[in-house]
Design brief:
By secondary structure, the chain is mostly helical. The protein contains 19 helices and three strands. A hairpin with a 7-residue loop joins strand 1 and strand 2. Helix 10 crosses helix 17 and helix 13 runs antiparallel to helix 14. The N and C termini lie far apart (57 Å). Bound molecules: 4-fluoro-L-phenylalanine.
């Protein structure tokens, strides 16, 4: 019988179960849906390079710090941070890391479930053969029709949330562990098959070039902010998901090797998803900058013309669904673990957390239809070809349809109106602000407030040089990188 400290929630069966769970959390919509579309929006190779730099110099070191904290206290992130803040006499606001995380988790889960609902819908449509022989235009219309119907979106959002709740309610071993053991290997096999298919496409070289050809002039500050934010999102950092999983990690597992494995696997999946999607985009003469619809509009076209496409297409969307499912579980786990520590049963805690996130998700559902014109942080610019006169305005909130009509009546200038829907705001706030902020606080805590000895004992690096490098990264490099990007983003 090992004498290691155990929390009340249990310990993963082995180091590899932790890897499976952490990869399950990290690999999700962020890799297969979001990474390709933001890469498309920010121009390809230049963005990918910054993203890779962020993953290796900031993301992986912060992930080690986050897991270390969880394993040290073996409680939910909220209680972990309360306890450790006291133990190491850090300023009280560090205890807030757990809370920022829980709130960010709710926000992300709420919109994540809506998007994951699309994959449920697409899995069913694929299965019925609806996409066989479909043209690009029709695929676009199908996606548009889905987004414009709040009731359909709500039904699939609900189905997904129930799937998530069903696993979490059964607990760490019977729920999380046993489902992840089957789902994750299947995901990898399918991705390899799709990669093999994409290699045979005429647009493969162009897709490859788009991902890996570095054009520095395409790189703006906003792209750097997005790349950094996405590196936190894709590795599930800064909100306690990975801390909660760290709390169930066996004490003798080496931190460095284990986390590098997780980070590398996550990155490989994102790149593989890009190498599947972009060749399809280019082979069909489509635009890489299509935004959130990229995966849902382009892949069905390819599957529709591929021999055996119904089968492969169905499996693909089911697997994206699985990837989203295993990530969503980790989004809810910190809040559920906290409620269990407060004395709620696991089932009650799950119902409460999922229900709250479901209600908030309705805002995202409406963002794609009834509320699509109701936007926040709206910038208006006007320009004219004949005169130099340029008009500029910024509104906290506006109905952009009304605004455009009003502006149209003033005439003379060409107006450009750009704002953020409710969904965009949640996405921006969590990915670009809350997660990096949580990540910096975690780094500062481990780097500056925990004793070197305590960190070294918990991290168990065999190589002292590697330990020193990692500690330098979380003490100096990650905080500076995030602060720099925040500063640039706000100025
Ligand atoms: N890492 C997940 C993805 O890439 O889809 C999303 C995510 C899960 C973010 C869990 C944050 C989190 F805590």
């Amino acid at each position: 019988m090992s004498s290691e400290k155990r929390g009340m929630h249990g310990i993963w069966a082995s180091r590899w179960t932790f890897v499976l769970a952490a990869v399950g959390s990290a690999v999700g919509l962020g890799n297969i849906w979001k990474f390709p579309y933001i890469t498309g929006e920010y121009g390809g190779g230049a963005f990918v390079l910054v993203y890779l730099l962020c993953i290796f110099s900031v993301g992986i070191p912060v992930m080690m710090a986050e897991v270390l904290l969880g394993r040290k206290a073996r409680m939910s992130p909220i209680n972990t941070m309360h306890q450790l803040t006291r133990t190491y006499k850090a300023p009280k606001f560090f205890a807030g890391i757990g809370w920022i995380g829980a709130v960010a988790g709710f926000f992300i889960l709420s919109f994540y479930s809506v998007i994951a609902g699309w994959t449920v819908y697409y899995s069913l449509e694929m299965m019925t053969g609806y996409f066989v022989g479909i043209e690009a235009e029709q695929a676009g219309e199908t996606f548009g029709a889905l987004l414009s119907d709040p009731w359909v979106l709500m039904v699939f959002h609900s189905i997904f949330m129930i799937l998530v709740g069903a696993v979490i309610a059964r607990g760490v071993h019977r729920g999380l562990e046993s489902s992840l053991r089957m789902l994750m290997p299947a995901l990898f096999v399918m991705l390899l098959i799709l990669l093999g298919y994409s290699l045979t496409l005429p647009g493969f070289a162009q897709g490859f070039d788009f991902l890996f050809h570095f054009e520095p002039e395409k790189l703006g500050t906003e792209a750097i902010l997005v790349a950094l934010g996405h590196s936190f999102f894709t590795l599930s950092l800064g909100m306690g998901a990975i801390m909660a999983y760290g709390a169930y990690m066996p004490a003798d597992s080496p931190l460095g090797k284990t986390i590098v494995t997780v980070g590398v696997m996550d990155t490989l999946v994102a790149l593989a998803a890009g190498l599947v999607i972009f060749p399809i985009v280019f082979s069909n003469g489509l635009e890489p900058g299509a935004g959130p619809g990229l995966m849902f509009q382009t892949l069905p076209i390819a599957f529709g013309s591929l021999p055996g496409g119904v089968f492969i297409g169905t499996i693909f969307f089911v697997l994206v669904l699985i990837a989203a499912w295993s990530s969503a579980i980790s989004l809810a786990e910190p809040a559920v673990a906290w409620a269990v520590e407060k004395g709620f049963s696991r089932v009650r805690a799950t119902v409460f957390v999922c229900l709250l996130a479901w209600v908030l998700g309705l805002g995202t559902v409406l963002s794609f239809n009834h509320w699509s014109d109701k936007q926040f942080f709206v910038s208006v610019t006007g320009s004219s070809e004949t005169s130099e006169q340029v008009y500029e305005d910024f509104l906290l909130y506006a109905d952009v349809a009304e605004l455009k009509t009003d502006l149209g009546e003033t005439g003379g200038l060409q107006y450009n109106v750009a704002g953020k829907t409710f969904f965009d705001v949640l996405d921006f706030l969590t990915t670009n602000i809350m997660l990096p902020l949580g990540g910096v606080l975690i780094s500062l805590f481990v780097g500056w407030f925990m004793t070197r000895r305590a960190v070294a004992d918990e991290a168990r690096f065999r190589n002292p040089q590697l330990f020193r490098t990692w500690r330098f990264m979380i003490r100096v490099v990650s905080p500076l990188a995030v602060l720099f990007v925040f500063y640039q983003g706000l100025s």
